[in-house]
Structures are given as C-alpha cells and as structure tokens.
Amino acid sequence: MKNLIFKEGYGYGFDTSACESCGGSCCTGESGYIWVKHDEIEKIADFVNLRVEDFATMYLKKVKHRYSLREKKLAPENYACVFFDEKNRGCSIYPVRPLQCRTFPFWEQFKDDEEEVRKECPGIV
Question: What is the number of other CB atoms lying within 10 angstroms of the CB of residue 82?
C-alpha cells in the first residue's frame, strides 16, 4: 500500500513504501556529512545506551563548529552512515535518526533539482 507524502514548494512526492525495497540508497553513496545537533546526539546516545561523551568519541566527527555522524567505507567510493545496518539494509537508529535523515527527500538542494533526487531515491513520484 502506498503512503504518499507531499510537501509544499516541491514538485514531487515521496512514496514511503519504496523504502522497504530500496536498500538504503539515501544512507549510502559518496562521502558526505550527516549533521546532528546536541539534542539529537543526546537522544541517539540514550538509544544506543551510551553516555554522550562516549557516544561522541565513538560516533561523531567535528567539522568546524558542527558535528556529523561518522561514516564507514563499504567499497571504493561507497560510504554509509555508521548506523546503516548492512544486513537489514536500513537504519539501526531509525526512531531517533537525525533531522537531516527525517526530512529526506525534501531537502532545499532538491527543490529545483528533481532529476538529482530521483537518482538517489526510488520513492520519488
């Protein structure tokens, strides 16, 4: 059953049922940043049963004045979020995933570039 989401200002919609068969295209690919804010860091740390300090040491990298989740290399030129579950092809922290992940595919950079988001997400309708 399709579960369609539309957002004002975007010329496309998103079928969330595509996530089941996608295999994590939005979580893998070229290297980049998975930005997290302090309140998100606290929630994720709690979710994985770690103190914030230990979580930060293990899973975060500082980029100027911001923090990003670390990545893991899957293959040459193919990276994944450290919390991407390769076996199940999905997010292992899904209930507490960062805002950046929760708002995909409705990112500003895709607002006027539907072709680019279609390359990344099979759920675009």
Answer: 16
Burial category of 63 from C-beta neighbours within 10 Å (exposed 0-12, middle 13-18, buried 19 and up): exposed
Task: Give per-residue pLDDT as tens, 12-42.
Answer: 999 988 888 888 888 999 999 999 999 999 9
Residue extents of the structural domains in the chain: 14-120
Enumerate residues 6+ apart whose C-beta is below 8 A from 51.
Answer: 45
Query: Taking Cα atoms as reference points, which of 36, 115, 19, 34 lies closest to residue 79?
Result: 34
Q: Which residues of 17-48 are buried (b: 16+ CB within 10 A; e: fewer)?
A: ebbeebebebbbeeeeebebeeebbebbbebe
